Amino acid sequence: MAVPQQAQSAQHADALIIGTGFSGLRALIELKKLGLSVITLEAGTDVGGTWYWNRYPGARTDSQSWSYAFPFREIEEQWTWTERYPSQPEVQRYLSFVTDHFDLRPLIRFGQRVVAASYDELSNLWTVTTEDGSQFTCTYLIPAVGPLSIPQEPQFKGMEQFQGEIYNTGRWPREPVDFAGKRVAVIGTGASGIQTIPLVAEVAQHLTVFQRTPNYVMPARNFDLDDEFQKNLKETLPSEWAKARKHVFGFPLEPAGRNYDDVTDEERDRIFEEGWQKGGFHFVFETFDDIIVDQRSNDAAAEFIRRKIKETVKDPKVAELLTPRNYPYVAKRPPSGTNYYETFNRDNVTLVDIKSNPIESMTETGLRTRDNEYSFDAVIFATGFDAVTGAMSRIDVTGRGGVKLNDAWKHGAETHLSIGVPNFPNMFMLFGPQCSYANAPVVVESLVGWLNGMLRHMAENNLDRVECTEDAAAGWSAAVDEVFNMTLLPAGEAAGSWYLGANVPGKPRRVLFYFGGAGHFDTVLRENAEQGYDGFVFTRQPVDAIR
User: Fold this and answer.
1) pLDDT tens, 195-230?
2) For 535, which DSSP code?
3) Would you give the end-to-end CA distance of the chain in angstroms?
4) What is the predicted pLDDT for the residue at 540?
5) All domains of the chain, ordered by start, with CATH?
6) SS3 143
7) If residue 391 lies in a helix (H) or strand (E), which one and from where to where?
């Protein structure tokens, strides 16, 4: 195959993967088994993706450890989780363990942040450029950049004036940060803020929490996994994984088997209490099966949580500020926390509602809202992510005919099956826009299984270029929208849900996930492969381009 003159000095591989989170590592394992030459580029100094960068206090999963993992039996037998919901260091150690087990490090270039990727039609090659000017060429480009990898940078006036410490939960420093005896602000009460706030409150002289939108926070009910639990778990892991593959959101949970109308009000309250005591996602997935689609069921769940907030938080005014009222439960991703509501009973914690009293600017000593001025030694921005499209939008991706990905997505991302984009041949996104909204490792297995089949199909049929059609992308986007609009989730736009990109000012409002369930998404991918990859067009390289 011809290599363009400008790329002859670049390093070449059959496939190039961007990122070493769950998606990138799983793809690397698979491509190595296929015998393809692979280069993986990673901006960090170690593997982990979001679990490398998000080292903030309290960072941990809200998926149970044994389901937030790869389904490799040899790994399951060697690795032992210590907690129900593992902390960031443990998840990162796990991914590092998997990397070493499969001897992947020689195929990974660390400290290489990708800034551009350009497709050359004549040679049928992608040229990938990193921040330091290094270039790589490949036939298959596989962005595995993660849906939650780009923190939303705060844009407050006067930030450069502040003389204290500034931190962002999504880019936490590697060295320990000590807040003991300091006046600290946390801006944001999404998942990162909810995990950070209780731990900072334990050591800070005073903590001020700035909240725009209150959340429905589930108690995590985390616990250590003792020897007996571990022994039983290792025996049941295959069945747990099978259960997760079938579950709508990819968790090893059983459907409730009941809806709102199936029980009395008294029974309903008892069922919610059981879910609350189990913690985490048990409340939404094992109480009633219609919480996301039936307004009455959702109202009942939301009202139960509101009562819990009122019972927990002693100051009625603070409790009311912490109580979500203007959007349905699950219309924003429901986070799990440990002692979150209890933290606001501490004498050294203050809650500020910035919806009614917005932040106007930062000053040399702290923050100024419309009504008050505050002084701090440190400010923590827990302002969320430019979710799903953020990482790809920061790479200058140029496809066939000079089409820019950012131009193609200027009104919102459109993909075929979350994997392909029209005019971008041989680019296979993993966990890209319009992917199934579910437990990541479960979805990644489906995606990588599809990718394996696609690359085998191309090799066996002497095909070297594949691209999805405009009609296929429009069709998948319509299916994504249709499922989303069958639920109560569209109401989350008013509350700034990142399901739609509504948390980022100026970002196009577009449904960013497929909410039809992990099991159904797997079926869709399998059927697509069985039907010869419907919606994808294959071509062979022209004779005059072969050397």
Assistant:
1) 999 999 999 999 999 999 999 999 999 999 999 999
2) T
3) 6
4) 83
5) 5-47+104-150+387-545 (3.50.50.60), 152-215+352-384 (3.50.50.60), 218-228+243-334 (no CATH)
6) strand
7) helix 390-393
